[in-house]
Specification:
- The protein is mainly alpha-helical.
- The protein has a domain at 47-117.
- The protein is 52% helix and 0% strand.
- The chain has helices at 6-30, 61-78, 85-97, 99-102, 107-117, 135-138.
- The protein starts with 5 loop residues before the first helix and ends in a 5-residue tail after the last helix.
- The mean pLDDT is 82.
């Protein structure tokens, strides 16, 4: 039978404890706190730490996915990538188009409540994408 050296096992235990402590700190940072009575100094929670994780503001399970998608698009915008009006419109249509996937398990039963929650009037299952044709693709070869 395989036996581990005591120092390897000891290092593993230390590493596991550090991971548990980091997890506890992240959870504590995301907890609701009474700001009137709270006088302690706290680190700001990074937005990236909330991506893909359910938050108290999420009404439906799929809200986590939609919030994550919107946050990632916002992060792209904040890093200097300027989306055109058509791209913004496409992304909005895309959100509604994939909502049945984002809200998997809920969409079939509470679709109207989800649509109302997100102020959506309709949710098409397809989105048409039209991109301009590059001039190099349409140029005729010279004889």
């Amino acid at each position: 039978m395989f036996s581990m050296h005591a120092s390897v096992l000891n290092e593993f235990e230390k590493h596991a404890e550090r991971l548990r402590e980091a997890s506890r700190q992240r959870k504590a940072a995301l907890e609701y706190k009474n700001l009137v009575d709270d006088t302690g100094d706290h680190e700001a929670v990074e937005v990236a730490d909330t991506l893909g994780k359910r938050q108290p503001s999420d009404v439906f399970k799929g809200d986590t996915n939609l919030r994550t998608l919107r946050t990632l698009l916002k992060m792209v915008d904040e890093r200097g990538w300027e989306r055109s009006a058509h791209q913004i419109q496409f992304h909005s249509s895309f959100e509604r188009c994939v909502s049945r996937v984002l809200y998997k398990g809920e969409w079939e039963t509470v679709r109207h409540a989800i649509m109302q929650h997100n102020s959506w009037e309709k949710c098409n299952s397809e989105v048409m994408i039209s991109t301009p044709v590059s001039s190099c693709l349409t140029a005729q070869p010279q004889p």
